[in-house]
Amino acid sequence: MQAFHEVRFPVEVGIRSRGGPERRTDIVSLGSGREERNARWIHARRRYDAGAGVKSLAALSQVVAFFEERRGRLHGFRFKDRLDFRSSLNGAAPQMTDQVIGAGTGSQAAYSLIKTYGASFAPYQRTISKPVAGSVLIAVNGQAKSAGTQFTIDTSTGVITFVAGQIPANGAVVTAGYEFDVPVRFDTDRLEIDMASFAAGEIPTIPLIEIIP
Predict the structure, then answer these.
(1) CA distance linking residue 68 with residue 11, whole number of Å
(2) Among 75-79, 170-174, 200-204, whose mean pLDDT is lowest?
(3) Mean pLDDT in residue range 135-148
(4) 52 phi and psi, to 5 degrees?
């Protein structure tokens, strides 16, 4: 796996990005007119175009420098998706009971952050591997736990580890609230920018694609 740089794409540029989740589905039309559908991907993959956020030469220079340091598509980085960057589904501030991330066994100390979408038909669980430092809230059976003294968080993987003496009891519900970034990379090795067109208001294309953990 190539190196991942734990640095966030310029937020002031990314805030105006467009994009979202993509899935891959095979559809076969039968002679009867019915369809057979098969999901080729277990997980959604997000794509973004951050070009709309470049409104000045200063912002453009910042993106070029960021692109060069990442060596184009070589190294991944963090991206704040302004539509979906919290554990809550309604955009509210994270709460420690937002997401169920596991059940205690009496011996399991490590839990991965997840976010669940939907509830009634086929809920989808998304692994959250890039939580924002200082934002993670953890509770066991609704009781808040303290970061550093009762649990630790690896912000590069999204893994919560309870310290000795604080491991959740068998059947205890472990919940979490957090903010998070999306691990992405540039989806091009070439930034083509026409300065004359840029001065006339043309938006450059800056494609990004999610890296699946």
Answers:
(1) 18
(2) 200-204
(3) 98
(4) -65, -15
Closest by alpha carbon to 184, among 74, 40, 62, 29?
74
Q: Helix or strand or coil: residue 53?
A: helix
Cα–Cα distance measured from residue 102 to residue 124, given in angstroms and rounded to the nearest whole number: 15
β-pairing, 76-79 vs 4-8, is parallel
Gap between the Cα atoms of 2 and 192, Å rounded: 24
Helices (H), 84-192: none
Q: Residue 210 and residue 126: Cα distance in Å, rounded?
A: 13
CA–CA gap between residue 31 and residue 35 (Å, rounded): 9
pLDDT at 200: 57
7, 35, 144, 187 from 11: Cα distances, Å: 11, 42, 31, 18
Chain centroid offset of residue 15 CA: 15
201 pLDDT tier (thresholds 50, 70, 90):
low
CA distances from 72 to 55, 60, 99, 117, 158 (A): 21, 15, 35, 32, 25
Q: In this structure, how many other beta carbons lie within 10 angstroms of the beta carbon of residue 182? A: 22
DSSP 36: E
Q: Does residue 29 contact residue 23 with C-beta atoms inside 8 Å?
A: no
